[in-house]
Amino acid sequence: MLIGIFGILGGSLNGLNLLVVVAAITLGCVIAQWRISRAMITSLRIDRRMPSEAFAGKPMRIRYQINNQHRLMPLWMISLVDTMEKMRLAKSEVSVPSKRPAIVPFGSIEALTGVGLLMPGQTTSAYFDLIAHHRGRYRFGRWRASTLAPLALSTAYRESIREEDYVDVYPRLFRLKRSWQRLLPSRIGNVSATVHRQGPSNDVFFGLREYRHGDSPRHIHWRTTARLGEPAVRQFEQQKRFDLCLLVDAWSPKAVDPSDRQQRSSSSTLRGRIKSLGPKTATSKKEAESRAVDEFAVDEHVERAISLAATLAVELTHGSENRVLLVVAGQEIGVIATGASLVGRKRMLQALARMNPSSHVPISDALLKASSAATRLPDLLVISSRSQTRAAASDAATATSLRRWKSRSQVNWVDVSSKDASQWIASENI
Fold this sequence. Notes:
Elements lengths: L1 H13 L2 H26 L1 E6 L4 E2 L3 E10 L6 E15 L1 H5 L7 E16 L4 E9 L4 E5 L3 E4 L8 E4 L5 E6 L4 E2 L19 E2 L6 E7 L11 H7 L3 E6 L2 E2 L1 E7 L8 H20 L7 H11 L4 H17 L6 E7 L3 E6 L3 H13 L8 H11 L5 E6 L3 H7 L1 H13 L2 E5 L4 H5 E3 L3
């Protein structure tokens, strides 16, 4: 436009008609670019489709259904930008996930996709793959579509008017060792007091062995018996049905509790008032960044404990009749009782994805809620980022609750910060 205005003024003052013509063509192209690009961007209809589930460290595909509603004009050079933000949930949102989340964003990722050519009335799809390296709840804000067509002299933008979309990124899953079921709480051999035997129809053929006194004649393998000349019977591996309470202790000395955050904010306000009486000083940028890093720091031991609990929950609720009572203990305490169902598994993974670590975890309160939710005390498996001795030493009520639970059922404590995790985890990347 500056070139066109300069050409018109120069041509008018000096009487150069050719310069006026060039200026008119330039301004005409700019006006045509503005009108056509605006018509193109308003003719777009875009629908965003979110994935049903996503896991940390695995790509999740965000799809967009793009439709050209113009009857005559094709669209081209369309780019689409979307932003994913990781959110921090408030304390009440983990126990009541149906409410609108009261969350605070920290950290964002931008993704870009586009469409080359879209004919009138045509509908196509575009997508991009994002990888969330940490569990949690993520928000997708308003997407922004733009086009440089037809002459690439300017860019026309358009933002969505619909509300944001949210997706829960579940914890990272591990690959367990083959003998992980033997590590579950047990009293007699590998069969727990709360492990129930299923019917013979659920037995799995294991092999053949010689006949022993007391074996059922129905299990005799007659072909092998005729070939060997001695009775041989089929041996079965009895399937087990576990009744287990899985407690996740998200204790972290790095975590900042809401009460501590309020005390920090009140103390900083008080310091600000005191400083306002004297010379005016401002908080440095480095101090603000360090406070943000301390507040949202990721504890590797806590994340490993949550990932191990998520892996066990998925394995125990996959195609079996196990009963699992999940207890999440962090800044909040949640109890999820479920069996072998997709809905129950999703609820457990959502609770594990949304839980926040804490430096003061009331394990005694978690055990009390677990005992009230269960009809009878199942075996207890605690997955923690600290040792049992340290947890009992920090709270006398925790030691008392564990002793009461041990008097009725088995209790196993897995400290992921020690060598206990190596007995369960074969690989942390699947």
